[in-house]
Design goal:
Distance between the termini: 83 Å
CATH class: Alpha Beta
Structural class: alpha+beta
Helix content: 40-55%
Number of domains: 1
Largest sheet: 4 strands, mixed
CATH architecture: 3-Layer(aba) Sandwich
Number of strands: 9
Radius of gyration: 23 Å
Length: 260
């Protein structure tokens, strides 16, 4: 009798295990790689993050996206005396805010957590309320970002280490970026079509579990509304010797010893 009960139990459970396994296979997919190269005080970058990129967290597209944020933009590594310094397109405040973004990403690698914090900062940038200590208010407005880890990173050598990491990532782009925001989907730069990134993501997705948000993007003709004067161009990022003293305090904090 006992053996017949065991056999009956196995007959009942086997279809359940088989069904569960099939479901797992049906919902497994390859995420689409989405890289955003940006700088914190470029108006187009702030608008892109707060008005466009944020939507993927609201409509479920983040479930099929591997989002990678690179806060460096059009900054340059330049010689400053015996050291090399990072000079940002929008001067010292942008260098500082780029570091704040980098440290938040470092403190909480989960993109769902750090993007909320970065979105808060960029929303303040749009409102022109980003100077310290105003951006620090985002610690109280968002959840999951450790203030101490971020601030220790921001004021310490870790911030510089991250800045150099993102500098190397940006400078290694092939083809090189021409402006920011510079959006790349599965290794292909979208160039002036970056505002249509969701259409590119949906059409690049090869999995079986297609988010409802993709329904209006499949096989859709891409028409960009971006104009060249609305981006922050690399070509306009020039630094003269006369400008160097204006950032001397920050470059001293960010200086890197020359290699021997």
């Amino acid at each position: 009798m006992a053996s017949s009960r065991v056999a009956l139990l196995l007959c009942v459970l086997l279809p359940l295990f088989t069904s569960s396994s099939s479901f797992t296979l049906a919902t497994s997919y390859e995420k689409v790689k989405l890289d955003l190269y940006y700088e914190t005080l470029c108006p187009s970058c702030s608008i892109f993050m707060t008005k466009y990129l944020v939507k993927i967290f609201e409509n479920g597209l983040i479930d099929i996206i591997d989002l990678h944020l690179v806060p460096y933009g059009n900054a340059k590594l330049v010689k400053h005396g015996d050291n090399t310094a990072i000079i940002c397109q929008h001067d010292e405040p942008e260098c500082k805010l780029n570091i704040a973004h980098a440290c938040a990403i470092y403190a909480r690698p989960d993109v769902n957590k750090h993007f909320e914090f970065l979105h808060c900062i960029e929303d303040l940038v749009v409102k022109n309320k980003y100077e310290m200590p105003e951006w620090e208010s985002c610690f109280g407005k968002t959840v999951g970002i450790d203030r101490k880890i971020v601030m220790d990173c921001y004021h310490g050598p870790k911030g510089l280490e991250l800045a150099l990491k993102y500098a190397n990532e940006t400078n290694s782009l092939k083809p090189p970026h021409e402006y920011v925001p510079w959006v790349v989907v599965d290794g292909e730069p979208l160039r002036e079509h970056f505002d249509e990134f969701m259409t590119y993501v949906c059409n690049a997705y090869k999995g079986s579990h297609l988010p409802k948000a993709c329904e209006n993007h499949l096989n859709r003709q891409v028409v960009s509304n971006v104009k060249e004067n609305k981006v922050c161009n690399v070509a306009s990022n020039t630094f003269s010797r006369a400008k160097m003293p204006q950032v001397s305090k920050w470059t001293h904090q960010m200086k890197m010893p020359t290699k021997h």
